[in-house]
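Let's practice the habit of predicting before peeking. Look at the sequence and jot down your guess about where helices and strands might fall. Then scroll down.
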Amino acid sequence: MTTAMPAQEATPIRAIVLILIGMVCISINDTLIKLLSGDYPLHQMVFIRSIIGIVITCGFVWGEGGWHLLKTDRPGLHVFRAALIVAANMLYFAALSVMPLGVATSLFFVAPLFITLLAIPVLGEAVGRHRLIALLIGFAGVAVMMVPATDWADVPRPALFLPIAAAACYAGMQVMTRKLGAGSAASAMAIYIQAAFIVVSSVSFLAVGDGRYAEGLDSESLIFLLRAWVWPASADIWKFATLGAMSASIGYCLSAAYRIGNAATVASYEYAALPMAIVLGWVVFGERPGWVMVLGTALIAGAGLYVFARERRRAGVGPAAERPIRRG
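Done guessing? Here is the structure:
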């Protein structure tokens, strides 16, 4: 099993390549989820992609050393962390069904700001005035994104809080990862997440899989969550297969990148997903970004990158901060 490198060491090119591959996979994953959201329930997509993903990830576990890597002495914390990332995914994907891809992605990137806030009570970290100013700027960007705009005028205002809630859950998961430390292999961490998705989506199928709770609803997000399972059309099978491959790749690439690279440096490259989402939203769904989206995105991304820059300059950010796992 490899161990995380100290934060002060240079981040290898391999970590940067891995995080960028992960961002490409996330962008493809989100695009496919949005494409399929009009015909299939979210829990069905999550179940199918996680079944495929866990099979592929088992190969990663074997390649990194074998099944003994799955053993952990903190199962409770891993379960809680997995629950947070499952909640983050469900909320975020529900948002994708009703709003432009670029808007959902931009709002989700308040996660680093939430991490800064949670680090105060949970990790006992001090937050200076520079990072507090960055927080205010980032949340100002969120406020700008909440302004009704012509390019997403039909999106219900409450739905805009879905990716923000997803970011809060993701931030909680990252903070839990810092508390867990650097004791698990990248493939093992990915297996835990895939297993959590399978359990939650299976329970969802048993509870609402017949679609009875979706009848008479007007909310597209709720319909997406409660719609009945249907057998995938032949034209969609490749999309589900790709979702599974993307799920496995995301889980492994991001965990591996954070294991071998400086957390602040690696995390800053996650912002590559923002232009990818905007371009894919434009090309695939015809979602042309307006000035509100550009301004809000710039404020959120600028604040987050500033926080990461401040983190990198701080001395003594140890390996406990090395391995957050992004949305899988």
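How did you do? The two ends are 22 Å apart (CA to CA).
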